[in-house]
Amino acid sequence: MATPVVEGWFTTGSDGEQPSLLGGRCTTCGTVTFPAPTAGAAWCPDPACPGAEFEQVPLSRRGTVWSYTDARYQPPPPYLPPSDGEHVPFALAAVELAEGIVVLGQVAEGWGVDDLRVGSEVELVVEPLYTDESGERLVWRWKPVTELGEEADQ
User: Fold this and answer.
1) pTM for this entry
2) How many CB atoms lie within 10 A of CB 110?
3) Mean pLDDT of the chain
């Protein structure tokens, strides 16, 4: 069975819905965070807001690339490489969403830094990260959006 690598941070779209990241919105001032604060340990990131309660909200599935880089080194644990072999470099993108926050994530399988530009549009996809004894573990990634008539490098 496929499950998110981190429960409660995103939906997988397995229920027929589109996958989405799950943020938290301060019920006092409306500030949005990702990931959503955990119950009992929440405070609003807006220093002028005394709010401490959040509601869960799905975040925009599309955003614009704020920055990106190429991860040529293997991150430290708890990161697990997708295979038992050597580290496979991957691209990371910081994506600005309509909610005014920037969310970091890997770039979708088959895409790299040559496919990204600051300000270009990307969309959220869910892909396998690794498989363990409980099954396939999923993670969100950012996939470049190509316009009609534009050729993708794939």
Assistant:
1) 0.87
2) 11
3) 88
